[in-house]
Write a structure and sequence with these properties.
alpha+beta; Methane Monooxygenase Hydroxylase, Chain G, domain 1; Alpha-Beta Plaits; Double Stranded RNA Binding Domain; 3-stranded antiparallel sheet; 10 helices; 45% helix; 21% strand
Length: 344
């Protein structure tokens, strides 16, 4: 029990609970100001931060109370407390500048043709399952379907507390080995898919995006959403002239909503470019730096001739690929965070 008490004290210090309490008081005062709600987005952002701070503070307070009550408790209560403390400790690894942000997660089929497109769709379902387990919401931004099966590429916006912080370590190449379901001989096939994870940034921070630099195009969507999307030009394509970046959003019912999502996605991509420039400059002083990208293999999923999912960075292995592909990613994500895997 003394060990748990020391661990809880360390968590309080790392999380700067006193600082968070001061910040919470400041935000609560701001939330009562009529001026704040003249900008609805800003008001929502303040309320979101309040909720996140309350969750952390109440989590610590609750554990302190449990620790006091369970001083003479048995092993079962102590085990429950230790599990809750472990989750709180994980929060100390989510202190990156963008960790609290929502995330854009994109999946791109790599080598392997139809097999790779089917694998990309499997990964999409895996992340949708993981998001559901965490209570996050998922919005499909854009999708390009494969001719025979699966997806060539897809982008999702994932909203939830610390979505980017938890998902950032998923960026990279994911490799699948299985018996092919697309040929009669069921030969063993290796497929690849790339995952890109970006933080969603607000309009006011980090990236200056001039309207003059963005070319806007509207076109008819082929995605779901009712008859309207196929008859009206609701889909949006944005081209950023200085960088050449092109983003699309086609899944929402209105052009305005698609345009908002596309602008957020473009802003996130520009932020990634800026961060990589900064880190490349820092590498001149600190040594070699490899730009994070989906070309670097991070995890292998083997369904045949044996069953195993292995993270090639942390060494974590799970012998139940079905569970992992269903969204049970907690062991991999936690290990990545503790090992410092992922980008800032």
């Amino acid at each position: 029990m003394e060990d748990l008490k020391e661990r809880l004290a360390a968590v309080k210090e790392k999380l700067d609970i006193a600082g968070k309490e001061a910040r919470l008081a400041e935000l609560e005062k701001e939330s009562k100001s009529p001026e704040l709600w003249q900008d609805w987005k800003k008001g929502q952002a303040v309320m979101k931060e309040i909720a996140e701070l309350e969750d952390i503070i109440l989590g610590v307070v609750g554990l302190e109370e449990e620790l006091a009550k369970s001083a003479g408790a048995g092993g079962e209560e102590g085990g429950k407390f230790a599990a809750e403390l472990r989750q709180l400790e994980l929060a100390t690894f989510l202190s990156g500048k963008y960790d609290r942000s929502a995330a854009f997660l994109s999946i791109h089929a790599g080598q392997g043709g139809t097999e790779a497109m089917d694998w990309s769709a499997m990964l999409a379902r895996m992340y949708e399952g993981y998001a559901a387990r965490r209570g996050w919401s998922v919005t499909k931004v854009a999708e390009s379907r494969g001719e025979e099966a699966g997806i060539k590429s897809a982008t999702y916006r994932i909203d939830g507390p610390y979505a980017y912080g938890y998902l950032k370590g998923e960026a990279g190449t994911h490799r699948l080995v299985r018996q092919s379901p697309f040929n009669a001989d069921k030969l063993r096939q290796t497929s690849f898919a790339g995952v890109e994870v970006l933080p969603v940034t607000s309009e006011a921070v980090e990236v200056e995006l001039s309207a003059d630099d963005v070319v806007f195009e509207a076109f008819r969507s082929g995605g779901p959403g009712g008859q309207n999307v196929n008859k009206v030009s609701t889909a949006v394509r944005l081209t950023h002239k200085p960088s050449g970046l092109v983003v699309e959003c086609q899944m929402e019912r209105t052009q305005q909503r698609n345009r908002e999502l596309a602008m957020d996605f473009l802003r996130s991509k520009l932020l990634r470019i800026e961060l990589e420039k900064r880190r490349a400059e820092e590498s001149k002083l600190k040594g070699k730096y490899t730009v994070p990208g989906w070309g670097h293999q991070i995890r292998s999923y083997v369904l045949h001739p044996y069953k195993l999912v292995k993270d090639l960075r942390t060494g974590v292995e799970v012998k139940n690929p079905t569970a992992v592909l269903g969204g049970e990613l907690e062991l991999f994500v936690e290990s990545q965070l503790r090992a410092g895997v992922g980008v800032v």
